[in-house]
Amino acid sequence: MSISVKNNVFTLQTRNSTYQMKADERRILLHTYYGAKTDETDHSYLIQMADHGFSGNIDGTEDERVYSLDYLPQEFPALGSGDHRIHCLAADLGSGVCDCLLLFDSYKVYDGKYSIPGLPAMFAGEGAQTLEILLKDCREEFYVRLLYGVFEDVDIITRSVVIENRMEGPAVLKKVSSACVDLMENGLELVHFYGRHGCERQMEKSPLPHGIMELRSTRGASSHQHNPFVILAGEHTTEESGICYGAALLYSGGFSVQAEVDQMDQTRLILGIDAQDFSWELGPGECFYSPEVCMCMSGGGYEGLSHRLHRGFQDHLIRSAWKDKRRPIVANNWEATHFDFDGKGILEIAREAAGLGVDMFVLDDGWFGERDSDLSGLGDWYANEEKLGCTLSELSEEVHEMGLMFGLWFEPEMISEDSDLYREHPDWALAIPGRAPIRGRSQLVLDMSRGDVIDHLHRCISGILDTVRIEYIKWDMNRSLAAAYSRMLPAERQGEVRHRAVLGVYELLERILKDHPGLLLEGCCGGGGRYDAGMLYYCPQIWCSDNTDAIERLRIQYGTSFAYPMSTISAHVSACPNEMNFRTTPFKTRGVCAMQGVFGYELDLRRMSQEEKEAAKTQIAYFREHYRLFQFGTYHRLVSPYEDKSYTAWGSVAEDQKEAVVAVVYTDLHANPRAEHLKLRGLVGEWSYRLCRDGEELGTFTGAALMNGGILLPVPKENYDSCQYYLKAE
Ligand code: DGJ
Predict the structure, then answer these.
(1) Which atom of ligand 1 is least distant from the CA of 525?
(2) Residue 63 pLDDT greater than 90, yes or no
(3) What is the DSSP annotation of 670-702?
(4) 442, 476, 603: residue to mutate for ligand 1 pocket, most atoms within 8 A of CB
(5) I want to staple 572 with a disulfide (CB 3.0 to 4.6 A). Which of 537, 602, 652, 697 is the partner?
(6) Which is it for strands 229-234 and 244-250: parallel, antiparallel or unpaired?
(7) Is 649 within 8 Å of 638 (Cβ atoms)?
(8) Nearest residue to 149 via CA among 139, 158, 140, 161
């Protein structure tokens, strides 16, 4: 049993971690422990009870003055309870002031994992248990149901919250976060992944100072700027050792991660929906469901954390029919043509792709409506047959006849003012009446909180999927939400629009997948602006970045790999000089980097030299042969792109440790270079491995030699040179 309850002490056990809370004599739900595995000992003995001054006392505790929610570690701190730190809940229960005091009411434990209506959630068969703890306001019929899912084998504990209004009048929710982690320690670092368009998920480690640090997106998408995944780590935690806690929010809209080191040197971490533009009127009898947080703990450094999260997301989050399959190697026409194409040119590119051994051709933006630039056409989801020179069906059939699958780009959540859809339904765009809208990429955002908009999009996309042979959709989203006003809601409820819009997106995705369960969805948001665990519930892979430069991708893909499995990272070989940063890299290196995930091509295949075509055929054959390692192997970040070294390296080892692939990309050149030894990980020390580099046999070495002595790397022959190793146990 992974959940035990004794005298109102709730202990959640995973294979390597323990999480504990306790409903004390005053019915406050305290957080007593989260860390390396211990036992059912009541860890509340760790809490120091003292009068710290200027810390208020809840009713009935004022005589002692040592009992204050201002410093006690808690599971779900609420505003108004005398806790002056960051909080999970701000709710006005009718007084006009947010003043909840949540007391323990009851609990239940059951086998299996809870789900959340309308929201993505991790799932399990029998291999998980759920704990529900019901808290109630000290006076009102206002309840908070805390949900905990325990996935013992991957050291994951999920959390979510249901707010239940059983009062006679409405409550107004001004902040609902999904989880709080109160650790009775400080000196921790927050590892987070910031960025911008074309430069996503750059890793940063920030020591937490006293006070509050916040990472947030107010953009209606999880965003390029911050990722809803963070790690709290000890100061000395490394890739291979030390304690760290990962927390991922399964949410694709605006979010907030707050970390506070308080006056008593304790650390609090809170994750949830961004509260800035949020408010929610919860009527009598209604419930509000928060998105889920996935928490994971590792005592074996970042690598241990990533391995657990990769396994957890692969087995318990990604649902697609494609989840365990080799993903199609695609050729996408975006960087080849942008909007400037016709059906004939598209078929020429597809024919080249088929000749190289590619699996799927993807027709990107520009195939529909009057869309010859980004100024028009979004919303008009019918093929521009004049531009294509045929129907979409005919195009797809021709592509299929070449032996390729066919994929299509959509950006369902958007609308161009110059479109038939806008001319017919101007009120479907989010905009404040009487004020000029904020435009992004010259487009507006559809009001995804409206049922009629979702029905319409469902009809359009299903209509195409029902009549045209399409195996894959690239689901794009190319601007941030701003001034998001829905005509469906009164002024005082506009704070609900952004979350309702996210629920609308999820509903649409769910409906499309229900009708077309075999469809492969690739998430995209101007590259990786919506790369989050919420999206992975619908899309087993996500376009990692619009930046396809192999060298910049090293950091982008490195940062992405901390939480998200390699099978989710979509990466393509593109042309040089790169269209975003103008860098030229060897064709080989572009392939080596793009194989660090879901592999494909994104360049005009008609313009490739014969030599490049031969190289592409070799890359495709290599990826096909070793796809299980690239997509599903145990991933090791061997040399970080942030390290002061002239190369970056990574590897993937088979679950049975009998095979591995390793890649090295040189980022710097030196005259008279010294010897570089790359130490591998994840092999069996006593076994002997046959080692090949770029197809050349180098001999047989023991796992111990390769892990402790390493591989002697070759001297690079050109700027951004690279090599690939393959190892097989004899
Ligand atoms: C942004 C995406 O990230 C690109 O790959 C491409 O699909 C463009 N949008 C098309 O407008």
Answers:
(1) 3
(2) no
(3) -SSPPP-EE---SS-TTSEEEEEETTEEEEEEE
(4) 476
(5) 602
(6) antiparallel
(7) yes
(8) 158
Q: Annotated active-site positions, please?
A: 532, 612
Q: What is the pLDDT of residues 377-388, one digit of tens each?
A: 999 999 999 999
Number of H helices, E strands in the chain: 13, 38
The DSSP secondary structure of 541-556, one letter per residue, reads EEE--S---HHHHHHH
Ligand 1 mutation target, pool 341, 367, 408, 409, most atoms within 8 A of CB = 409
Task: Indicate which atom in ligand 1 lies nearest the CA of residue 474.
Answer: 7
Q: Which residues contact 21 (CB under 8 A, 6 or more apart)?
A: 9, 10, 29, 30, 31, 32, 75, 133
- The angle, 0 to 180 degrees and rounded to 10, between the axes of the packed helices 343-356 and 610-632 is 70
- Cα 526 to ligand 1 centre (Å): 6
Closest residue to atom 2 of ligand 1, CA basis = 526
Summarize the confidence of residues 703-726 as an average pLDDT. 98
Tens of pLDDT along 134-181? 999 999 999 999 999 999 999 999 999 999 999 999 999 999 999 999
Per-residue model confidence as pLDDT tens digits over 424-437:
999 999 999 999 99
* Residue nearest atom 10 in ligand 1 by C-alpha distance: 365
Q: Which of 543, 574, 601 to mutate to test the pocket of ligand 1 (most atoms within 8 A of CB)?
A: 543
Q: Between the CA of residue 160 and those of 88, 178, 247, what are the distances in Å? A: 12, 5, 13
Centre of ligand 1 to C-alpha 641, Å, is 26
CA of 136 to the centre of ligand 1 (A): 47
Give the C-alpha separation, 689 to 686, whole Å: 10
Residue 125 has pLDDT above 80, yes or no: no
Q: Which region, left, alpha or beta, applies to residue 332 given φ > 0 means left and ψ of -120 to 50 means alpha?
A: beta
User: What percentage of the chain exceeds 70 in pLDDT?
Assistant: 100
Closest residue by Cα to atom 9, ligand 1, is: 526
Look at strands 244-250 and 292-298 and give their pairing.
Answer: antiparallel
Average pLDDT over residues 447-453: 98
Q: Counting atoms of ligand 1 from 1, which one is nearest the CA of 527?
A: 3
Alpha-carbon span 409 to 461, nearest angstrom:
11
Residue nearest to atom 11 of ligand 1 (CA): 365
Q: What is the pLDDT of residues 670-702, one digit of tens each?
A: 999 999 999 999 999 999 999 999 999 999 999
Ligand 1 interacting residues, C-beta cut-off 6 A: 334, 364-365, 409, 476, 478, 524, 526-527, 543, 546
Q: Burial of 19 by CB count in 10 Å (0-12 exposed, 13-18 middle, 19+ buried)? A: buried
Q: Residue with the nearest Cα to atom 1 of ligand 1? A: 526
Residue 126 has pLDDT above 80, yes or no: no
Q: Assess whether pLDDT exceeds 80 at residue 1.
A: no
Can you point out the beta strands (E) in 608-695? 634-639, 647-653, 659-666, 677-678, 688-693
Please classify residue 391 by burial: count the beta carbons closer than 10 Å to its beta carbon, then call 0-12 exposed, 13-18 middle and 19+ buried.
middle
- Average pLDDT value over all residues in the chain: 97
> What is the whole-number distance in angstroms between the Cα of residue 410 and the centre of ligand 1?
10
CA 401 – ligand 1 centroid, Å: 27
Residue 50 and residue 38: Cα distance in Å, rounded? 26
**What is the reported pLDDT for 64?**
81
- Rounded to an integer, the average pLDDT of 496-519 is 98
CA of 334 to the centre of ligand 1 (A): 7
Query: Is residue 406 within 8 Å of residue 415, measured between CB atoms?
Result: no
Contact 657, 673 (CB under 8 A): no
Q: Residue for token digits 């088979």?
A: 654
